[in-house]
Amino acid sequence: MEEEMEEARMRLVEHEFEEESLSDHENDHSNNRQQQSNSKDPLAMIRTRSKTMGDFSQIMVFLMAWSVMIGLGMLVIHIVARHDSNRQTVQMVALGVGWIALSNLFAFTFFVIDRFRLLAGAKQMSYAVSVTLIALGGVVGGWLGVCLTVYKPPTGLKFSGFFGKALLSTAFGIAIDVFIILRIVLPHRDDVLQGIL
């Protein structure tokens, strides 16, 4: 009885190893074909290498580029205003203005890039990126992008679903923009203008 059980186990193990390839040769060919087909699309190349380029990863790519631009702008302002007595005020106002300007620029750019990807036949970027950029303060640029590019969300999502989420993000974006304008830019505008003039 035990011998029969042992033989049955051995046949089962042998059968499993016969179906499963022990070499990566077959997998390399399928990955190479997929990489060659995606060679024109940089985001697809990232996606195939990490296999996790989902919504969150796309948001992080845009946010990293956005924060690098903010940092470069602050570095320039720091160098230009280094002899100004109100340097910290100038930097704070510049950060507020830069925040609003870059969030609108990035939101508009997202929709333009997404439209070109759609026209080229590539996969659309996640709508979560656009909603996040609008929520960070890119309200004007985001809605201009939606209107000028005649935005259509990726398949599987109705425009009404995107529209509802975009309206909620717009409320957050307007709140951030109003806070920056009313609490940072307007109260310190005279100090900054004195430094310029």
What's a concise summary of this model?
This protein has 197 residues and is mainly alpha-helical. The protein is 78% helix and 0% strand.
Walkthrough of the structure:
This protein has 197 residues and is mainly alpha-helical. It has 9 helices and no strands. It is 78% helix and 0% strand. The chain is elongated and about 100 Å long. The model is unreliable at 19-27 (pLDDT under 50).
- Gyration radius, in Å: 26 Å
Helix content: over 70%
Large-scale geometry: elongated
The number of strands is: 0
Mean pLDDT, to the nearest integer, reads: 79
Distance between the termini: 99 Å
Order of helices and strands: HHHHHHHHH
Largest sheet: none
Question: What class, by secondary structure content?
Answer: mainly alpha
Attribute tags:
mainly alpha; elongated
What is the topology?
Blueprint: H1 2-19, H2 25-37, H3 42-50, H4 55-80, H5 87-120, H6 127-135, H7 139-148, H8 159-185, H9 189-196
